[in-house]
Each structure stands twice: as structure tokens, then as C-alpha cells.
Sequence to fold (1068 residues):
Amino acid sequence: MSWVHLWCVVALLLASVLAQTTPKDEHFHEELVVRPLSGDHVNTYFQFTTRWHYGQKENLYHTQLTPRVIAELLQQFDVKELHIGLTQGLWRYETWGYPIVEATSGAEMWAWFKGPNLTDEAVDKQWAQLANVFSGVLCASLNFVDNTNSISPRHLLRPQFMPANRETFVRYASLPREIVCTENLTPWKKLLPCGSASGFASLLNSGYVHNTKYHSLGLKVRTLCQDYDEDNCILELTQTANLVYDLRLLEQSGNDFSLRRLFGMGLNGYCELATTSKIYVQCNELGARYQLVPLPPAEVKTTRGGYTVLYGVYDMQEQFQDQGERLFNIAWLAPKGEVRRNRLKPAPPPIYVHRYLLGQGQERGRIVTEVTNSHYAPLPIVVQELIPWYVHAYLHTLNIRRRSMGRQEYGRETLPFKLLHYAPGKQRELPTHLEIGFLLPGQSSALITIDVDYLVLKWLEYPPDANHGHYINAALVSSSLPMGTNYSALPLEGHLFAHSFNATRPSYVLGLHTEALIVSLPTPDFSMPYNVICLACTVVALAFGPIHSVATKVIVVVRPTSAGPRNFLKRLKEKLFSRGGQESTPMEGKREGVVPDDPCPNEKADDDQEEEREGKEEAAESLIANPFESLSSAACPTVWDL
Amino acid sequence: MDAKFYKLILLGGAVRFYFVRTPLASLISDRVEFATPLNSQKRMKEGIYLLDQGIDPYSGDLVHETPLVLKALSGLFLNFPQWLPLIYIMLDLLTGALLYNLSVRFVKQKLQKQRLERKNYAKDTEQLQYNDDDNYDIPELVLIAYLFNPLTVLSCIGLTSTVLSNLFLALFLYFLTKGLLLPCIFLLAFETVRSFYPIVLMAPLLLVFARRSFAGGVILSVLFAVACLIIAAASYLVIESWSFLDGTLGFIFYFRDLQPNIGLFWYFFTEMFEHFRTMFLITFQLNATVLYLVPLSLKLRKEPLLLATVLVALMAVFRAYPSLGDVGFYLALLPLWKRCWKYMAHGFVVFTFFLVTLSMMGTLWHLWIYAGSANANFYFGATLAFSTGQIFLITDLLFAHVKREFCLYNGQKIMIDGEEARILLK
Fold:
């Protein structure tokens, strides 16, 4: 039960933090981490942290550094923790290692709710409102988040605040179709105390940020309260921007780069409201081959879970101590004449994931999630799937096959589930929610497959570009690593990047996202509604007419038409006029006999057959004169009722 | 029950057994023409799996089989999946045998009735009367039509639950001809709770068991309602929730799944304007149930089995999720009306319709879904034409029946002024 253990540690640490700080204190920190990645990529990670020990809830009305909208959030909703990610691009675990903050392509959002007398319905309502609020705040399409694409994860997500009791609610949603752009970056920067005027945020120019291979804006809010006491709380707002530059796209010779190259300008100083403004530059591993100009004034060596990283630290407040307008720049100079393939290639991280779609056509397919464990020991894996309602998943087809690292193909060996949570989806109402847990043996891969059917939607439910396809959300994969290789996420109780230094723990909770998928559903012809309605109704009428005429009409015996007028026009005329005026003006040269279809055999049983026929002929004769009379005075009235 | 019967049954079993072992079986169980959301084996498996896992199968959108069937088959599906095809084949053969027995009894009843009424028949109508040879011919034809119709064979090897529906319907019709009231009512109630549309078969049931008394009809209706309630309650006990009602009957009535099938609903409601949807839903469901019920019951009040045949056929055309297995079932009942065939004028047209549309469906589906070179309209056209063909067949049968009845009493040749007259409906 290492989980409970971890909680105790967190609780203790939080308690000590709360005890030290006095109410009313509010701090803002800005941090920038630059890490060279393999394959000529550079990761720059901005973290802006506002930490406000607001104490009682009433104090939330008087905001200083914390944006008002965040403070109001806590007054209006029972939300205790909120994560929003807006991401473009795909983080490549195999070559880049693990990011400092995890995000999936598109928009992603999850929140924890806790409050007195909170019910599931109330949380659903608050969740939708919350999404709408942030749709406005970040100019993202989060307003599309509702119950049709939200789930409440059972096992995978863990709260980062202190749930005093277990009565917490969580909601998760992601919008893989969302495209992240300037209109999200600008409002995101406005939440910072200095805006984009000064400080590290001035580096985030949309022209450069959106040129990157991967960019992810994050927003995390959490409240930390002392034990059960809601009157002694801390509000923590963490805004992150995680960017990956491809140096080959920076139009320059060699592999040198600098802050100015990456962001279009040097740093103009620090945010005056910030308590700390620090730049951390990774100097070992892939960073070792660069020569830094200027050299970092300080260095930090951090060993975490047996994994050592060396950071050069630039404190901006020291750099800008003396007066004068200037721009600060750091340059990374690569050795000249370096052969590319001799370069150090990092070992792949212990766990990485991929996902793809099998099958062809627009009828059905199979979602495949592949998790690879390159560590030597078995690792616990939890996978969370959110399959949108327009795709039907069949739980009975779910299986996990295993393959050792050396093998090429998956055999028949399957892995048993240690944990399975499944909530089936419902069209237009609920997504399919699947969480599975299993133990993945060391040096092997697991192939998780589930069969799906693609649905036909109503014609108005297709997006404007119907043949673009529909997205299937990325799966979340979580594990607990015994070592800190490649792991750089913040520890649970820390709020600054600096808190991850030397933060050795018994285990490291890892969260990964797979790729999102795109499926093409069968599309109807959008120009057809009237035609389809007409045609289908015609076919119904084809049945309706004859069946009702069989059921309601009487049988008549007619002399063959050959006796009638041969001329087509005359025949037409006859047809037209025979409709109404037949009974009063019987046609010349034509005689009709109307005979009941069921001549009441029992009553006429004694009559001779021939006589009956004659009698009928007579009846027919009289019918021509006045059919209605004969109807009413027929020998056996039951004959005529239908 | 002669040697020929057993030979046919064995041969029918052999055909099914041969095909169930070919790759055709898995292909058919995925074809939309045979496997609808209601009857597909994949969904049945899913339902049983969910039930086994303790998850309410009806909380999702995949399972529309009743809890009773799921529970009854769960042991089989979970423990002996390899025996499943064999069981389905046995059930299908049982359906064939029931239809055979039903027609034996039917022909006997017809002959008996004919003997009483013979003196009223016109002279030259031997051709229209059932004769002693029919004692053997008609049951055999029925059996052949059921066992060797590709539609039923494929529906069986695709392991669709239409096999079960057909079995229950055959049992119902069998008990109807046998005159056993309680099994009839219970089977009908079971099928009604399962797939809603068989409720229309109350009409033939009432015509058989409560011919002359209104009170009898009321009592039977109450009995039927009670039977439905009992079956619903039993289903409730199985999963301890009423969600199955919405998952089965609600799903059928509201037509939630727009997956293409051979019926008229899917494209119609895909392309429907949202504000007309409810109206057309009600219209179409009325069309599939009560619209033809009253006139046909009045017209065919002396032929409850014909009424049942026509209603089953109309059901197969107009129900929300029809499959070709349903079509195969009513086609097997047509030989019962062999003596009407003389007057069925559209035989060739209908046959051509069936042949062309059924072969087009596979092609057009492939072009739409896999090749991407056709669109939904093509497939819709094929299903529309197929429905039209079926409607021709049904109306043709009705016309033929009416004409036969007329000619039976009035002679096949009615002369007016020395010329042969034509028979028309007016």
C-alpha cells in the first residue's frame, strides 16, 4: 500500500508548509527550463506559479497576483483541483523521454470536486459550467465538454490536493479535434501578473511558439487546506508552456541556438512581481556537448531515483540587478564539424506507448494500444480509454497480448486483468469508459486490442467537413516507476520546478498519453433528405394502397376490354367518365356483373349449382340498375360487409 | 413424418453444418443484411459477457436482447462456445420440423373443411381445391423452402438470434393450428417483449380462439397482457432493473441505431429533419403494426393462418430492424397457399427483384463502405427495391387469395355473353 504511504508523506509536508506561511502572503515565481533533446530538438518549459495562502474563503474577494477569475472559481464551484491542457503536436516518448507536464493533443480538462452535500448531478452541472467558464477565459472550444464526452475516472487520475475524506468527484474530458493557436495563447498570458509585458512571458510570441513541433499550454489550479479546516487554505495556480523546437527548422547553419533564435528576442528582464525568476539549463547528457555563453553563474546537481541531472542556473533578478535597458540572451554553441551519427543516443524511457487502428472500411475496426516496458522488472500499468459515443466498443473482444522485446510478433499469450472498470457508452448520451490494470512483465510489450463498430449518425450530426473523420480520444496510461530515469515531473507536494531536485521517492507516478485516432464513419448523402423521404414514403404507399383495396373492395366480373372502344383516346375518355356516372348511365356494349366474393354457402346449400348461377346473373343484372339497392336487399347481407 | 422428412432434415442440417465451418459464417455474422443491432451474435456475446461481469448490459447501447434469453444462453456462450453453431443448427432444424408439422395439420384441416363445403364449390375448380396429394406435397415444400432457402441457411450459420425468433414464431403458429391456447399466448407474449412487432399476431390468435364471443376476446387480451407482465417481471428478476425495457422495446420504438439494414427505416431517419422525426417515427411504427391489422383481420377472418402469414411478412418488411432471416421465414410459409399460386401474377417480377437486389446489396455495400466509390444512396436504392419486391409479393398473395376464393365458388371461367370475363376489384 505504497499509495497510502505516499499520502502520509504528502500530508506531513503540506502541514509543515502551511504552518510556516502566514496568511495573506502571495508569491509569484517564474521558471524556464531548457533541455536539449535527441534528434536536434530543444525542449523549453515555462512555469509560472502563483501561490496564495488566502486563509479563509472570504479573502478570495481581494485578489492581488492571482487572477480574479481563478479566485471566483473557488467561490462559485466546489472545485478543488483543475487541469486544462491545450496542445498541438505529439510528444515522442521514445526519443524525447518524459515531459515535465503531460498533455494530449487537442484540449484536455479534468477537475476534482469536493464539497458538503455534493451529488453526482450537481457535479455534472458544475462541470459543464466550469468548462464554459474556461471556454471563455482561454478562448477554447471547451464549451463542447458535457456529459456526452466526459467520464469520471476510477483509478487512473489521483487527486493532488488533500481529500480529507473520500467523498470526492472527478470529471475528465478531452477534445482531440481542438486546434490550439494564438487565440488561446493571448488570454492564457493575460492570466499572469505581469502579462506579456515583462518577465519570461515576453518570450512567448505567437509567431515563434506556433512554429514549434510541439507546444502545450497548461493551467493547473489546486487548493490545499489544512486537514479538515477550510479556513486555512492555499491556492496554487500553475501555468505551464511546454515547447519543443526542431533546430533544423530554425533556418540556421550548424546546431547552435540561443534564446533569441528560439523566441525571436532576448529576455527583457524579469517580472517585477515575481519572487524568483530563474532559468535552468540542462548541462549533462545531450546538453553536455554545448558550450553555454554566458556561463551559468551557479550549477545544481540533482539526483533523483538514481538519475542525475546537472542544471546551470541563471537567476534573472541577479542578472538585471544593475540599471539599464538591455536584453539578456543565452547561446548554446555546438562543437564544429561534429558528425551527427556519432552523437549520444539516450536509452529509451522505461515505458512508452503507441496506439493505432486496424481494419479497413467504414464499418468496423480495432483499436490497438501498445505499451512497452523496457525496464527489467514487471511494472503495474493502468490504461484509461474514453471512446466517444459514435464508436461502439465490444468489451468481450478486449484482450491483452504479450510479446517479449526480442520477438517480432505477438503470440497467443495473454495477460490477465488485475483491474477492470467498464461503463458502456450510449449513443448521443455517454462515452464508453474503460479502465484496465495489469502487470506488464519486464522487457516486453503488451498489445491491448478492442473491436469497435462505426456508427451512422444523423445527417445533421456530422461536422461541416464530414469526410475529415471523427476523432477517438487518446488513451491515458499510468504506471509507477521504481526509479527516476528520465523522470522530471514535479513531486506531488512541490509547486516549483526546483522542488523536483533531489526529490527521491519510493516510486514515481508516471502518466502518459497515446496518440489520438481518427476514424471515418460512413456518411450519408447530405443533399438527399427530400428524395429519401419521398422515396421511402412511396414504398410504404405501394403497400398501403393495394392492401387496403384488397381489404375493402368487392370483386367484379368485367367483360374483357377488347369489347370496348379500341381507340386509345376513347378508352381514356371512357375511363375518365366511368368514374362518377357509371350507375346512372351504363355503358353501351358493355355489361358488368358484380358478384359477391363470398356467397354465404351455408344458406344456399340446398340450391342447385346451376340455379344459383342463374340467380346470381340476375342479381348482377339488377346491380347494374342500382347497385346500392341490391346491396341493401341482398339475400345474405353478410356477404357484402367486406 | 416419413423417410423423406428425415432425409430432408438431415440434408438441411448437413448444408448448415458444411457452411458453418467455412469462412462464410464469420462473414455473414458481420453482414448488415443478416445481423442487425437486435439479432447479431456479437451483441449477444457482449450482453452475456457484461451480465457475467456484473455490468448492466442495458446501461450501454449495444445489447438489445431480453435478459431472459441472455441468461438462458449465458452458460452455453461462456462455457461451450464451440458447440454454439451445432445448437443453432439444431434449433433451426427444429423450426423446419415445426413448420412441417404445422403444414401437415393445416392441410388436414383444409381438406376437412373442404369436404363439408364441397357442394358449394363451382364445378371446374378441382385445380383450386386442396387434394390428397397436398397432404405430402405442401409440408414437403414448406420444409424445403425453410431448410434450403439461402436466406435461412445464411441467417443460421451467421448465428443470428433470428434463429430463435423464427423458432418461437414457428412454435406459435404450430400451437395455433393445434389449438393450444396457453402456449400460444405465452410464446406470443415472450416474442412481444422481445421484439415488439409480434404483438400484431394477437389478431390471428383471437380469430382462432375467440371467434364468436366478444367476452372471450377480452379475456384473451387480458390473459395476454398478464403473460407480458409475467415475462417482464421474470426479466426484471434476472437483472433486477427495469432498464431492459428501454434497452429492448424502447430501442426498437425510438429507432436509436441508424446502422443500415434491409428495411426502410435507416436512411429515412438518417436524413430526417429533426422536428419531423417524432411524427414519422410514430407513422412508421403504426405502419408496421396497426395500419394493416384491422382491414386484414376483417378480410381474412376465416383464414387466421393466412392472416398470420401476411402479418409476419409485413412485419419483415416494415419493422425497424429487419433481417433477411425474417424474410426467409415467411417465404417458407408461402407453399401453404399453393392453391393460390395460380393467381399470383408477379412471381417472375418478384423473383427478379429478389435476385437482383440481393446481389446488388453486397456489391453496393462494398462500393460504399470499402471502396468509397459509391455512396449511401446506392445501397439505399437496393434496399428500397428489395422492400418493393417483398411488398409486391405480399399484395400478390392477397389478391391471389381473394381471386381463388371467388373462383372456388363461381368457377374458374365466368362467361358473360359467351365471352370469358375478367375479375377485378372495385
